[in-house]
């Protein structure tokens, strides 16, 4: 062994021992039973199993399981069973050891969790990592056996996100996309608010690095003024709390870059217009645990005497905690500087549950590590709903993920049954959602409801505190239109399942049409024939193709025969040529039609594709997000091996990253302001004489930009309108918006899709 290799091994040894010692120190400082022996045994076993293996970053692989165990212990508050499972979580998947070996050495409980983690792994960074919807189904099924499986999986994902730098860009987009789509909302649902925020922020950092860095810089530059505001605002509150004799701590909570960016996108505001960047958190330790809710209200009354509170922004999650266990009292107060500031009041117990979520509940039982039992009714209600969806899964993975996300993201309202029982429902739910939440039969035959003793239709949206009685009729049957107004995952899944059963007859009719067509043209009917024709007509599955045939929205003809006989050569594929979504300065009509680029078999997916003025016509630009030069984009290889271009934050792209991650490509612009693209700017303001002329003057005369379409409406002295223009890139749009904002009485100018 040469000197250099020995030095490296010694450095690795020191690094590994240091990381494990840090883990042990964190565990010994926790409230859990001190089972150091089994943790050390798991560490030595995992270290031996992963010996000689390194991560892409170059560090020894064992540092990853140690880091996951560290997160599980320190940030989620789990005990020895979970720490051992985290240390061993990759052993079965990556080495020759089996689940039986783990059971023989560490017992059935640790083996069961490791087995659950192995089943849902599927190689997160591997080429096979793309059936994420299927992996997610397994994950949810396993979760209902032992919630620790999903908690450790979230720790694993968090460490992977923290070390994402070593991955190629296309993998970064895939992993960041599925993190934002699945793991962040799942963390939120399990009450892991801190982890949820970090997952969102890390995803944002990799998908939109420029926006992330811009917001980070702005947060840094405004830190001094924020600190001053915090000190001035909290000084009289602290004085009041001291007089009351409360043991307290006051913290500032600053919005994350992701959350600021999200607000900027949704509300169409600039960084300076996001007013709730700062919030104040009062965390107190009650003398008696049973007095903590009263103490929250006492503090609220005291600070309301100092500052005026906003009447519509009092949020009471004390008596009825959120489904993820979150408890607090939120109040918004007007500071002396004329700024609304949110104050969150909670006890130390509530704060720990808010930070560490579901796992923290057990710390307040008797300080010992507990088995995860069935006493968390809200969580189990949610898991039951998930299981019902899994029992009748949609054939389409995308629909399945959408259904689950409806449950993950929902915030809650409280609704009463006719007998006065409370049911937790998602905000925005309808009377029909409520009917399906009680029983499928009730939902299927629902004709209306009585809300607070008044008759309402199925689509009536419920509010917190409503008392709801469902009305049914045996003559009523599920309607396809119901899917348009239900908002819960359970209702949607049940309606789709019933409609699918009804749709099977139409599919059977479609199959018969295909059989007759093939027999008539003396062609053999095989499963690949239907798949080939489904792809030819751009249907996502064989079932949807049969459905379209049965509904006669697809008619079979000569082109289908050519496709089956392989006669659709490049010459015959003129039907697939199309006009590209941009205009050259002096482009002739025939120059704007171009063949799509088809991805060859040995295409290097790790390298970025560059879109320039000459090859832009070879890529498909979908209308879901309308990307133009300057947008953060990615490529997606479709079923015909052509490349679609999407914005990285496009909702369709988010689903693609989650379900077809290995088809994602890094894409970059290399444009030189030769082509024009369509963009729409929305404007609002105070109406006055000459406003239209001023707007036209800024765009046409000052900016020398062609207005394609201009619509404007005015009502009661306020106008709003849309301007469709032709621009070279996103920079042009920003310059035009900045110029429009200089016009007197024009209050708002934002780009829309």
Molecular structure report:
Helix 18 runs antiparallel to helix 21 (489-520). The strands form five sheets. The protein has a five-stranded mixed sheet. By secondary structure, the protein is α+β, with helices and mostly antiparallel strands. It has 27 helices and 20 strands. The chain folds into six domains: 12-207, Orthogonal Bundle (Hypothetical protein af1432), CATH 1.10.3210.10; 216-363, 2-Layer Sandwich (Beta Polymerase, domain 2); 427-487, Beta-grasp domain (Ubiquitin-like (UB roll), Roll), CATH 3.10.20.30; 498-573, no CATH class; 575-670, no CATH class; 675-752, 2-Layer Sandwich (Alpha-Beta Plaits). It is globular, with a radius of gyration of 29 Å. The chain starts with a helix and ends with a strand. The longest helix is centred in the C-terminal third of the chain and has 32 residues, at 489-520.
Write a concise synopsis of the structure shown:
The chain is of the alpha+beta class.
Number of structural units classed as domains: 6
Query: How much β-strand is present in the residues?
Result: 15-25%
Q: State the shape.
A: globular
Report on the biggest sheet. 5 strands, mixed
The rounded distance between the terminal residues' Cα atoms is 62 Å
Low-confidence blocks of residues: 122-130, 362-375, 570-580, 585-593
Strand order of the largest sheet: 1-2-5-4-3
Secondary structure: helix percent: 40-55%
Assembly classification: single chain
